[in-house]
Amino acid sequence: MRSKSSTIRTHRAVTTLAALLAGALALSACSSGGSKSGTKEKSGGGQTPAGSTVTLPKLNGAHLEVAAVWTGAEQDNFKKVLAEFEKRTGASVTFVPAQDPIVNFLGSKIAGGQPPDVAMLPQPGAIKQAVRNKWAKPLGPQALKELRQNYSQGWQDIGKVDGKQYGVYYKAANKSLIWYNAKVFANAGAKEPKTWKDLLTAAQAVYDSGVTPFSVAGADGWPLTDWFENVYLSQAGPEKYDQLAQHKIKWTDPSVRQALTTLAQIWGRKDYLAGGQDGALQTEFPASVTQTFTGGDQPKAAMVYEGDFVQVNIAETKAKVGTDAKVFPFPAVGSTAPVVSGGDAAVILKDSQAAQALATFLASPDAATIQAKLGGYLSPNKNVPVSAYPNAVQQKIAKALIASGDDFRFDMSDQAPQAFGGTPGKGEWKDLQDFLKNPADVAGAQAKLEKDAAAAYGSGS
């Protein structure tokens, strides 16, 4: 279970960030100073661009492997960050494609005597498991210095285990956004909703105009957990959210029944889902996005729920963010709109000067600024210039994230043991896929969720 230090405990905190995000999507202009160009040599270090905040050692001849589950543009953009590390240090870095669940992938590599030097872990639960298995190595003094300079306490804490720092949260996500096809909304006369009731009204208007309202990535279990978490956080409140995240209340609790019943108002409408329930269960996340923004004003669906990283997939279509593809905060189901965050942390598995240097680089604004400029990425690093993000939508989301400080709730399934919250075909992912297939069986879904949660939390796996 996650420690209490990893999330902020006040209802006011969630309210504050929800208000910030709502304002963030108004697309007003914002600016911040950028970094300087050119390079200079610092004594005792490698190549350091002028204006850089971090000094790295010379690592000529060193070789590193970095494992992550990232694919497509996300992987390509991260490789550009690694290329900059190579340029500055003289080390060579190989990206190792990993599979979900990454802990199982790493276990196989370690058993074979070939662990990567650094792994990007998408769950706090995975960090805890890596520490418990004695795979993870603590961060050294230089990485800790960068982390403390550039991150709020909350983002530092979720990378800690038993008070010791193991993770650098290189990537963040705002998982409380719904993206929509602007032409479809305009043709339907639909307005951006602020409440769940408004969302249902907008969905009906879209449906009446001849377009299916929602694209749901049911083939991938994790987007379904994110749907649930937003509804649950807004409806049940942050205290209940924290209790369920730590399995201090059961999944058979009435608050879970209420959230699933609410979800069924959309998931239970076959004509509201692109391809119906069966089609949704065959739709992987990238396709859920692209089918919303291809086909002009007659796409397969008008709306798709997921985080700021949706922009990577929108970029694969001809749609432009801010004009063709617009976004609104996940509507309030209860009294307050939800704000759920996620992220990926760099964790050292083979302690060496080179691995520590890479962790230090990833904790610096330099690394995050490179990827921010490429789009489809959000950093919790508060010293990344907001102007580095390539469009007004992303700039405002980033500004709101940094302004929130510690006022966020971390993805619930990512806090859970990997066997429950992070394994394809098992646990919460599978149980919510089954619920999407049969949204009328709320009690059955609750029973399955509780059985799998009890087993995973009991074993800690």
TrEMBL record:
UniProt entry tagged with the keyword Transport: yes
Pfam families documented for this protein: SBP_bac_8
PROSITE patterns: PROKAR_LIPOPROTEIN
Record field: transmembrane: none
Signal peptide from the UniProt entry: 1-28
Alphabetical list of SUPFAM superfamilies matching this protein: Periplasmic binding protein-like II
Keyword annotations from UniProtKB, A to Z: Signal, Transport
Family: Belongs to the bacterial solute-binding protein 1 family.
Protein name as annotated: Sugar ABC transporter substrate-binding protein
Organism: Streptomyces roseochromogenus subsp. oscitans DS 12.976
Source species taxonomy: Bacteria, Bacillati, Actinomycetota, Actinomycetes, Kitasatosporales
